[in-house]
Amino acid sequence: MSFNPADNIQDLQYFGEFGGVNPSISDSSTYTFLSAKTMFDTFEGNADGCYLYSRHSTPSNLYLGKALAAMEGTETANVAASGMGAITPVLLQICGTGDHIVSSRTIYGGTYAFLKNFTPRLGIKTTFVDITKLDVVEAAITKNTKILYCESVSNPLLEVADIKGLSALAKKYNLKLVVDNTFSPLSISPAKLGADVVCHSLTKFINGSSDTVGGVVCGTQDFINELRSVNDGASMLLGSTMDSLRASSILKNLRTLHIRMKQHSFNAAYLADKFQADGLITVYPGLESHPSHQLFKSMMNAEYGFGGMLTIDAGSLEKANELMELMQHKNLGYLAVSLGFYKTLFSAPGSSTSSEIPVEEQKEMGLTDGLIRFSIGLDNDIARTYQIMKACMIEVGVLKK
Ligand SMILES: *Cc1c(COP(=O)(O)O)cnc(C)c1O
């Protein structure tokens, strides 16, 4: 049987302590022990099934982690209070002073800032590369390199990483391949393609209702144990723990992710096709014009589509801003950062989510002033939405009549 992430989530079965169809929410920061000996063993990490203190783990967090591990096909997972709260401990767990990271240069602004500005203070250096060129990636690897870091589909340029190719490099040089899969849940299963660690910001598509931040690290039991170690685990000691109430609400939203992703992908594919036909510079991995269209196709779980993210170039920041304000006025979506909401969200990354990246570097990677990033919503009638969007584009002069 082939791997299907949504079926794996559906196949899990758990009940609440009173037979509720949802697991009960654990509402405690600390846990009692029947014997002092068990408490000691739990501290030593030798008492499976015992809870100690909720920064370490909680039943609710373990349920959510289990479902996300099933989705990614990894042994286990650890949830965190935010995407950054998941990603940064992974990097700090694997790397120490003197170590080196090779990272894609087109990544989430916060991760970029962490690697560019923060980790050098700890003596960890990062080389940023064009992740789509495996020879360039390989040339950047040094004897101190510990991690290859990328996003399956990158923010905001929607570049696609060759995860199998990167995994082969990681194996050759004994590195860990860490992949942020926030933009392509269900569509791409990085661990199945050879990634060692898969991270998500749950804030985006997975939770899907823009009401919380959250994150997860999916990986081997050994690696997750390391992150959670009371002695030297970065997740445990840096303390970005998710609250149980949030874990239970994200778990409930996760169960409709497959339905939502299909609709996000359907709507984004429809708009991308139309925008391109109208003559706009449109980037969407589902378009044959996308440089990595075939690569995405070769990696994807086809039924979930090419995802809900697309970009267009409005020509200038002024035009982009004018268009976004008008689209919001017409209630086509919101001028907001983030992604994965039921409404379409749009922003100009150069002056917002990627503003951590110096303007010179933005130019070099092809991040233009007029770029608008869309997270396409769950619109029931996308053809109707398109007609109104097109009228907006004509009104501000991004499209000719
Ligand atoms: C939002 C985002 C993050 C950070 O997640 P938070 O939940 O905001 O901490 C990391 N990576 C990607 C690709 C994102 O879109």
Fill in the CATH topology of the largest domain.
Aspartate Aminotransferase, domain 2
Question: What general outline do the C-alpha atoms trace?
Answer: globular
Count of distinct structural domains: 2
Please write the CATH class name of the largest domain. Answer: Alpha Beta
Bound molecules: pyridoxal-5'-phosphate
**What value does the average pLDDT take?**
95
Low-confidence stretches: none
Strand tally is 12
What is the N-to-C succession of helices and strands?
A: HHHEHEHEHEHEEEHHHHEHEHEEHEH
In the sheet with the most strands, the strands line up as 1-7-6-5-4-2-3
Give an overview in words:
The protein is α/β, with parallel strands linked by helices and 401 residues long. The chain folds into two domains: 5-254, Type I PLP-dependent aspartate aminotransferase-like (Major domain) (Aspartate Aminotransferase, domain 2); 258-396, Aspartate Aminotransferase, domain 1, CATH 3.90.1150.10. 39% of the residues lie in helices and 14% in strands. It has 15 helices and twelve strands. It has helices at residues 5-10, 36-43, 59-72, 83-94, 109-118, 134-140, 163-173, 221-228, 234-238, 244-254, 257-277, 293-299, 317-329, 359-365, 382-396; strands spanning 76-80, 100-104, 125-129, 145-151, 176-180, 197-201, 215-219, 282-283, 309-313, 333-335, 344-347, 371-375. Strands 1-7-6-5-4-2-3 form a seven-stranded mixed beta sheet, sandwiched between helices. Strands 8-9-12-11-10 form a five-stranded mixed beta sheet, covered by helices on one side. The longest helix is centred in the middle third of the chain and has 21 residues, at 257-277. It is globular. The model has no long low-confidence stretch (mean pLDDT 95).
